[in-house]
Recover the amino acids of this structure.
């Protein structure tokens, strides 16, 4: 498979992921779930490097700064956007799948 796009994780994504990790480690003492979540994201990352438009376009009632796409990873939803000129996929947020995304800061 030829990789045409670079993947870049934003600081917001890392903040989200670290909050999720802290929650599961503190509340459930479960590091395996965090590794499993990370593996789910990494599998999709490989696909995005060649086919960044593979996943669903996110529709919102509010004006967003980017055209976001999403995919599920366990109980979470990963938001990303594509910079077609630079050939970069920015992983922007990872949020709990059951939340109201129209109120999330994207």
């Amino acid at each position: 498979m030829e990789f045409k796009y670079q993947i870049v994780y934003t600081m917001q994504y890392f903040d989200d992921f670290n909050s999720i990790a802290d929650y599961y480690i503190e509340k459930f003492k479960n590091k395996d779930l965090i590794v499993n979540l990370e593996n789910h994201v990494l599998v999709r990352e490989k696909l995005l490097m060649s086919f960044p438009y593979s996943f669903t376009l996110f529709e919102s009632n509010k004006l967003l700064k980017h055209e976001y796409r999403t995919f599920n990873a366990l109980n979470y939803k990963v938001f990303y956007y594509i910079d077609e000129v630079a050939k970069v996929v920015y992983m922007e947020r990872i949020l709990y799948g059951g939340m109201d995304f129209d109120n999330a800061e994207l």
Remarks:
- The CA atoms of residues 21 and 35 lie 9 Å apart.
- The chain has one domain: 6-99.
- Residues 6-99 form a domain with the YaeB-like fold fold (CATH 3.30.2310.20).
- The longest strand covers residues 88-96.
